[in-house]
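seq/struct pair 1
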Amino acid sequence: MRDLILLALWLLPPSRVKNRLLRSFGHRIAPKAIARANLVWRVRSFEMAPSSRISSGNLIKGLRAVKIAEHATIGKNNVITANAAYARISNGGRLELGEHAYITSRHSMDCSGSLFVGGFSAVAGHGTQVLTHSVDLARNAQSAYPVVIGERTFVGARCLLLGGATLPARSVLAAGSVLTHGERSEQGLWAGVPARFKTPMTGLWFDRTVGSTTEIYVPEAQQVPESHPQGSSAG
């Protein structure tokens, strides 16, 4: 019955009343968090810090815990799930976003082995897949390993991140790349199938003080105008 009530509450439009009702059923949703209508099913613990945001149309199912830090954002129409077996394991079935981190829209994320997105990082574009669990052929068993996206990193469109993969802080995973199991230390551009280190990178994006980017570069003028109409956030 609790699951059905929470499902109905999550389908309500965003409001402080909705947040208060979710808190009454054990979730930790800050009064000023924005939680739009989403399908949330059998998520044991859901925490949203002040000024965090979830847009509409997401499917979030079977996780042990979701934790969204201050000013972090999940966009629209993402599929975020975990295998029920791993949600019962203490370190499994978790999704955690650091402060000012954001996930854009239309991504698919298997969090069975857990997914950790560092502060000021972005899973940008569309169509990225995170697959934290698979069959271990040597052991003939299912296995799951966490995926860690370091602080101030940028994941391009249509990437694939496999269980046990780590993207170092202040790095970029180029669009279409495949990041496989393994610890990595070089900070910079990672690209290819499988992704390999290419070159160090610098830029204002890595040192920004807010999560999303609203500035617009005009190629013809080769500059960012000092003022322009504020639009939707860009990656």
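seq/struct pair 2
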Amino acid sequence: MSDTSKTTLVHKAHQHILGMIFDGELKQGEILQEAVLGERLEMSRTPVREAIKRLLGEGLAEVQGRFTRVRRIRPSDVDDVFFIRLTLEPDCAAAAVGIPPAALDPMEARIVALMQQGPKEDESEWLTDNAFHQFVAQAAGNRATAQVIANMHRRTAIFDHSQVPARFLKGCAEHLDILDALRRADGARAKRAMTAHLEGARDAIFRVLDDR
């Protein structure tokens, strides 16, 4: 099996299990068993095992003794993550104004292409979103901050177009607005735009959690 096929299977397993958690099929505290889930999803245990590892990294599962159990994300968990992101990322955007305009072109083209193709049943949305936020964070010149942002981004990446469909195009447009501010070397505008972007994402997630 190619690496691409393996990644696609892991993504599908992750999305299926994620949907089962959000839909209440998998309750809080329920044990995530590779064999049982593999049978339900008609998959081998390998992609299911990798999907469970992702859920652990995203805070939707936790290890208790010998078992991995479902953990529900609470609004306070989301608030904690975005408190850190809102503390760090707007300042990173302001500090990234030294990026040469030509260096912005590939990221802008990638976001535009994603908007044109629309969300797919793969990881292109997450990869592009993560690449954008790391691009800005690393351009600010602090590796430790960029690593913290990467870890925090992973905690909310589950809320993609499948969970918050209204944020797909809006979030992409906000990315382009931040890039435009950087292209014009307007640090204050880049900071405001990043703040609005993160607050919009946070509030959309709150609404999803409230509905459920």
